[in-house]
Amino acid sequence: QVRENKRILFMLIGDGHYREEFGRKIQAQALDNVKLLPLQPKDRLPEILASADAGVVMETRRMANLSMPSKILNQMACGRPVIAVTSPQTALGLMVEEKKCGVVVPPGNSDLLAMAVLNLSGSFTMAPSMGAAARDYVEKEFDRAKLLSRVPELLERARHSDAARYRDHALKRAMDMALALAGFVVSSPFWILVPLAIRLEDQGPV
Q1: Which pLDDT score is estimated for 172?
Q2: How confident is the model at residue 9 (pLDDT cuts 50, 70, 90)?
Q3: Are the CB atoms for 75 and 45 separated by under 8 Å?
Q4: Would the pTM count as exceeding 0.70?
Q5: Residue 64: which residues within 8 A CB-CB, separation 6 or more?
Q6: Mind giving me the DSSP string for 23-38?
Q7: Which of 14, 15, 59, 131 could be stapled to 86 by a disulfide with Cβ–Cβ 3.0 to 4.6 Å?
Q8: Residue 154's pLDDT is what?
């Protein structure tokens, strides 16, 4: 959809079971705006991410809300905006919108993805502004010393929340058992009459 815009080039770098088929599709459609490169050494990752004007991070609907994609932090640390292909209500979508560090595009909508790419490439201020916000967010929230200093607090919170959850579960389980037992006792005459009525009516097995 954006092949006519010669300023836009998609770079896909890496390996995987889908690589060969994807390469064949690129050739079959003569997509000269898509370059497929082999897996690169890990120490080149910052250079590769910083060489792009923006990065695309994709989440399938099935995996949404299970976790935050780790690759996104490397990209943001390089001061590049994010095109997040995910539901706006996922953790990734909410973070990108809140921090104004990129654009959120719903999965499966190629028109909106193409529009997001064109908008970013056509603006000389949008991408740098979003990239700066991304870098600022990583520096403030993911500083190693700051993260380590929060570990005791997070462990304490997790310990108390688990205990409370277990107490709530145990209480609910006891209530369920008590109500179920009471219901069985009250309705037991009815359950005795049901098989008798079936037997008397059609003479067949209960």
Answers
A1: 78
A2: very high
A3: no
A4: no
A5: 86, 87, 90, 92
A6: HHHHHHTT-TTEEEE-
A7: 59
A8: 82
